[in-house]
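ARCHIVE RECORD
Type: protein–small molecule complex
Small molecule: iron/sulfur cluster
Source of inputs: curated submission
Record status: active
Notes field left blank by submitter.
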Amino acid sequence: MSKEREELKRQIRRLAKEKNAIILAHNYQVPEIQDIADLTGDSLALSIQASKTDADIIVFCGVHFMAEAASIVSPEKRVIIPVIGAGCDMADMLTAEQLRKLKASHPGVPVVTYVNSSAEVKAESDICCTSANAVQVVKWTRSGRVIMTPDRNLADWVRRHTRQEIIAWDGYCPYHDALTVEAVELARLSYPNAVIMAHPECPAAVIDMAHVVRSTSGMLEYAKKSDAEEFIVATEIGLLHTLNRQNPEKRFYPASSEMVCKNMKLIGLEQLRASLEREGPVVSVPEDIRIKAMKAVERMMSVPRD
Ligand code: 13P
Ligand code: SF4
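STRUCTURE (tokenized, with ligand):
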């Protein structure tokens, strides 16, 4: 590690302390960012944990909807994202206007929206879900028909676990959706004893090959508890850093080295330092939208886990 890098890290920690800022990093961030963060995890868990601290500033190293989620649950805190252009392709596939039209063509049908969505889309939804609780949330609605947005693959996954009719928005994550059966087959041939873990954003044909289907935090939990020694990981490759760090005695292999979310790699130590210095760019949600979006998040939190 060069002296300049060490100095950069010291400056970041000093600035965070001076400004009473908490640094959050999503599981897909580059290793240097994950290592310097106060907390790492999935988007919603990070927002909720940060809301319980007395920090004045939340620095969200992740993508835009994640910083918005932090602002929804912590309106009194200043939420910043080091690179304002770090968006999520999936979240960008559905606008509030498109959702209003979809709702109008299915009156009275409840809308379940994945957290990978804008605050405006959440505000138009009845309830939010994560990739970890989507099945429970849909069942909880007790409705024969449910609209699910924006991820068609998560909707497919839920469809397999309920008798409810699911009307899915045709959005997807380009990085998860592009994972092919052939790529997973190749990984399986190389590591025949490995447990295959897949994220529900993967296509159904890949899900069929997986031994376990989990959110990023679910994969971390599973890998820790499992007796298996080798794992093929079908999600964004950033997760491998945490998996390796938490389980040095186990081996983790990417299902495909092409699963790299370009949005998640935009933030580096330089951008993090600059954002702490200028306390921006700020991500905030207009209060009327925030209140409605918060209701959808709170409803989700009231759903009992199985
Ligand atoms: P998790 O909520 O499982 O961390 O996933 C977030 C995400 O962006 C997946 O692509
Ligand atoms: Fe969005 Fe996909 Fe990137 Fe996750 S991996 S932030 S769903 S584009």
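CURATOR ANNOTATION: The longest helix spans residues 3-18.
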